[in-house]
Amino acid sequence: MADERLRLMAVHAHPDDESSKGAATLARYVDEGVDVLVVSCTGGERGDVLNPRYGREITDLDEMRAVRREEMAAAAAALGIRQTWLGFVDSGLPEGDPLPPLPGGCFALQPLEVAAAPLVALVREFRPHVMTTYDETGGYPHPDHVMCHRVSVEAFAAAADPERYRGTGEPWSVRKLYYDHGFSLSRMRAVHDALTAAGLESPFGDWIDSRAAREIPERPVTTRIACADWFDRRDAALRAHATQIDPEGWFFAAPRGLERQVWPWEEFELAETRVPVKLPEDDLFAGVRVLVEGR
Question: Which domains does the chain have, with CATH numbers?
Fold first, then answer.
């Protein structure tokens, strides 16, 4: 098996999630020769225009889907990754008390085996050594993020079992599954403290002090990937999602020199492994390289 190319699959709910959660890590691995595939579960067609500088609203689902496909292609080019669509329809983020029902046919309402089947097929086709996705909370309570977690965990478990999802390809055993820490209160605190110490305005102060922040449990960090040299690629990918990302918004509030000093990495949580590991790690492929590359 030595000399086979390493492969990484990152499973996300919507286009733009790949750019805000672990994107610099993806770009680093691309430059190291890893074959990286991003899977977008939905088309993001029920997303609002969140960038006040975008200039217009988009209310038609087909138009939003087309726009977000173009944005995703630009982001993929910035990161150097491959990308594909799982083919489900965005569930939208329900708001109100009580919450309204989700729209019929959306991703979050699919039976688990229906939603997981195309991902199992992709895993068996692409044969990733490592997968990344969200934890059981979805990172934040969007129904598509929670469903993304469920289908990813299902695919990780099922793709190796020849008795499950028959007709979707030859079984493949992914070696490791990680949850990415796209939202990190620790990072926010570190950057906030560095900004205020430098006499700069921080966009994180009110949030850090809020009740909502205090109620978010800190997830265990098992793996830190040093990727400061790829922050510019991450930022270019973020800006490519012009309907979603304000180029003058909080994503870009910290000067990159400061960010490199106080938080030069991205964090992950090892959820499942089929190879021996020693924690903490600094490589998503720790324990896998010896099997694939002979080292």
Answer: 7-183+220-292 (3.40.50.10320)
